[in-house]
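Researcher: Please translate sequence to structure tokens.
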Amino acid sequence: MSKIKQFVKNISPFNSRTDMPVMLYIIKVIIIFWVVKLGSELIGEGVVIGALFACGKNPLQGEMFSPGIMTLIMYYGYAILIGIMILYWKLFQKKTIAELGFTKKVGGYLVGGIIGTFLSVISVILIVFTGAITYNGVFSRIDYTFILLMLGGFICQGAMEEVLCRGIVLQLLKDRTSVPVAVGISTALFTIPHLTSMTGVSVGILIFAIINLILISLVFSFLTLHFRNIWAACGLHSIWNFILYNILGLNLSGNDEKMAAVFDMRSVGSNVLNGGIYGIEASVITAFVLTVALVIMYVIMKRKGGVKDGIQ
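Model: Translation complete:
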């Protein structure tokens, strides 16, 4: 019985114990990921539902705000999840915000945003050249206020995923395992939740969607380890999503509901060039762009002394 109690204590996500075999610790971190993810989502949903009731809406009877307002509520609701994750980090892992990846070097966010802009735009331009995406000009009526609000929402959404995968998971694992193992597990846990949005796509699109999730996750991890914080990963993640969805007006990770965008761009058919309904994140061309980006990043980082493995 004492061994069972010891085992339960070791893998419990509600303590900061690390004195256990590496494999057991890896299992513990995977449990932490799902407990924090599902727990924060459940609490976040509760807060949003409570807020709707406070505003005179009854979501249990289908009473909601307009689709645009509900979209903003959903994206800004990710800020609640971030708060819950940070609270978990401080209370149960007993670590600082800097150890999570939010160091004082906030300038990395701008670097990540620039990289995200370049990678997304160059991917779309190359796909346009193949004819798999058409450019139909600028929309005549552009809701700039909504677009700016969506930028804030994507900042919350991208940061939430990075706090969980490149923050909590990667930072806990890199001190007890090798960097490749830590990055690999972080990448797998980043990829798995996205699989639910891939229903109804062809096998080819499914394969490249998974490949691109792995590649972009590696990019996020490279940036996190090199800059020794998660600012750059947060910037790239959020700006990539914002550019595709609200600037170029393309599908984003299976979401084809258009709210507001600047440019009118549309996929032609459904194939591995444009990623079909999943968007360019399931495109073979995006896979090529991300692969080239990874090679360039590796060369640059190696010349500057290699990938660092810590958080300042």
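Researcher: Any highlights?
Model: The radius of gyration is 20 Å.
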